Amino acid sequence: MGKLTGFKEFKRQNGSYREENERVAHWSDIYIPQDSEGIKTQAARCMDCGIPFCSSGCPLGNIIPDFNDLVYNDQWKKALQVLHTTNNFPEFTGKICPAPCESACVLGLIDDPIAIEDIELAIVERGWEEGWIKPQPPAIRTNKSIAVVGSGPSGMAAAQQLARVGHKVTLFERNEAIGGAMRFGVPDYKLPKTFIERRVEQMKAEGVIIKTSTNVGQDITADDLKNTFDAICLTGGSTEPRDLTISGRELKGIYFAMDFLPQSNRRVSDLPVKPDFDITAKGKKVVVIGGGDTGSDCIGTSLRQGASEVTQLELLPMPPKERDNSQPWPVFPRLYKTSTSHKEAMATLGHDIRLFSIGTKEFISDGNGNVSALRCVKLNWIMPEDGSRPIMEEIPDSEFLIEADLILFAMGFLHPEHTGLLDDLGVDYDPRGNVATDQSFKTSIDKVFAAGDMRRGQSLVVHAIAEGRKLAKEVDEYLMGETFLRCPE
Ligand SMILES: Cc1cc2nc3c(=O)[nH]c(=O)nc-3n(C[C@H](O)[C@H](O)[C@H](O)COP(=O)(O)OP(=O)(O)OC[C@H]3O[C@@H](n4cnc5c(N)ncnc54)[C@H](O)[C@@H]3O)c2cc1C
Ligand code: SF4
After folding, report:
1. The CATH number of 243-411 is which of 3.40.50.300, 1.10.3470.10, 3.50.50.60, 3.30.300.30?
2. Could you tell me if the CB of 44 is within 6 A of ligand 2?
3. What are the distances in angstroms from CA 87 to CA 4, 64, 129, 239?
4. For residues 44 and 276, which has the higher predicted lDDT (pLDDT)?
């Protein structure tokens, strides 16, 4: 374990962030990690619990007490090996995971949990600095060819795992660059794209054939795919956004978050911006409808583009600030969260931009076809004592207007796009519209598998990597009759 009395001696400490007013002037990484001595102190707090709830809380099953102990004992290279046995890309999770492992940490029952995410990031970054992270090309080739369609974290993990056991893997992506929602959704100030690029280089050196700017279903037909490859892995994400089809929806100035964020990331990376979506928040009054990570990313991006005002509307009531009886340890709780973007808004605009329990009734025109305001209403949520679904009612005479000339929908994603590849392949869908699979990640179509948000619905990077690893294990077994690939339970 770390230090026998570490959890009593040391308090939790995280890295810091650049000052809010300074960081909104650029797109660079806002996070300043702790130095290695600070990280060792944090690792020293680990109690090496008999039942490490942290590991079961982590969707990847990361072997957290072991790498904590190795870091405390200055054995960083071994810590990296332990981390990589369960996670292909610890830097992605180390940067943007909401850390369900920390919510499940036993120390969290009596004190602040171990700073697991900081330790994870420090280990992998040390690995890159020291040159310990190298390509792992396979010792043998199998002559089996696999198409992985969609290059988000699930597709990347699946492609890397399958290439390392000798299969000929082609990773298709319709965008110009690899990374999925991490590449074109998550802004650079949270996840610099160099973090993705160095993994792409590693994967190429391991034999993964990368085909970007290739929309499978259009540029390659479903039949071609089936005739060319021994197995097909669908990892296209959940990309159909939830809409709000109320009066005024047709007005100019109303966009989905994933129309707005990608064009910003494209500008930052000097990639061409799609003409129909050359959107900027500069000088605008922005309203973001919906909370969550996507909503926060819209706020931080709008502030960096020079929005004059930002408001965030949430339909649901404000979540509790601490765990209540409905969310006991070690479940991953839904709590009131002040994101880095909320802090930036507070610092630059001078007020909290969040409004909870608000419904939107109408988008109002400026008379020239552009949106100029929203008509909103305050909501009352009734929580039935029998635990059934909360009931929403409008508070009488509570309507109000919010001025807005840019409105961004960040209300989540319904399911993957059906038209095109999925319908052409003829896969079955589950009741929520995601690609249906059995426990082996097989779809209803022979030799076609699916994983990630496309299969489980909108989720998190950590779940996507876990799904990609499970998919790889199943596909390897399907092709070879046995597998030695490791994946989460
Ligand atoms: C704005 C935003 C912010 C987020 N922030 C966080 C966060 O902070 N922390 C976190 O853990 N999670 C976050 N998430 C969620 C996380 O990014 C996703 O859960 C994760 O990326 C899903 O991975 P995936 O591989 O299943 O799919 P995706 O990442 O969605 O990747 C799917 C890829 O498939 C490609 N594709 C689809 N169809 C085709 C086709 N026919 N041909 C070729 N390519 C195709 C798409 O272009 C896309 O690149 C965020 C999501 C968004 C949108
Ligand atoms: S639950 Fe927390 S204290 Fe216990 S082993 Fe895991 S990280 Fe260490």
Report:
1. 3.50.50.60
2. no
3. 28, 11, 18, 24
4. 44
